[in-house]
Amino acid sequence: MKAHYHRAPAMTLVGVACCAAAAFAQLDRTPGQTYVYELTVTSNTQVDLSKLPAAVRGAVQANLAAGGTPTVYVLTAATGQVNADGSANVHVQFTNSRLPNSPVFARVNQFDAILSPVGQLLPTYDTNMRPSPNQMSEDQMRNTTAQTIDQQFATFNDFAGGCGKHGHLRTGDSWRVASTSRFSVAQYDLFAVTGVAGPVAVVTMKGGYSSSGGSNNFEATGHYDMARRLVLDLHVAQTFQNAAASSGTSTMDYRLRE
Length: 258
Known about the structure:
5 helices; alpha+beta; 13-stranded antiparallel beta sheet; 19% helix; Lipovitellin-phosvitin complex, beta-sheet shell regions; single chain; globular
């Protein structure tokens, strides 16, 4: 299977001189390192069921109820080749608390990815691979799970990119990042550093968008390690309103296990 490097966010720093290239070369990423991230997702969605066909209302209600139970992903990324730009090729295996612990899921819940020079986790997958109409092969299932994690880490990657590409972070810094990545159409108006302790900065990120289809707004706060170019943790709180009479809130908590 030929995998395509698909999720490279295109970010533009507005009014900021990015001088981090020299720092990237000093990264201490080495083959054999392991990074373990835990992601907890919780959602609370309200839907106007009166606008849905009676035949599907029960299934929608069940899905909405399930969303209130946190889903926990644990991703283990093992470093292989380290590249000249400071990025690393990693192989990721993960568990999903909603799925049984079985050999089948252990085989398909894995994929290759790039750990970027600024700490983004960018799954690689074949965008041209289409699921079979009847039953997917294990390769197709792995490709699909890579896309799922790619989407789950979209805000995380925007945060890492905004922090890492800004340069050396100092308390009081603020800047804007326009994201044009596949999963994010937001304009992040308020990247701001609220504190720094040694190499670790506390950074807030606010953003959102509105269109004829609805609106989506979020606030995020996390710790970014400037020395290791890694997100240590990130809390994202999101509110959304869709034109199709659904609205709600969700939270995503990312944590690097030391």
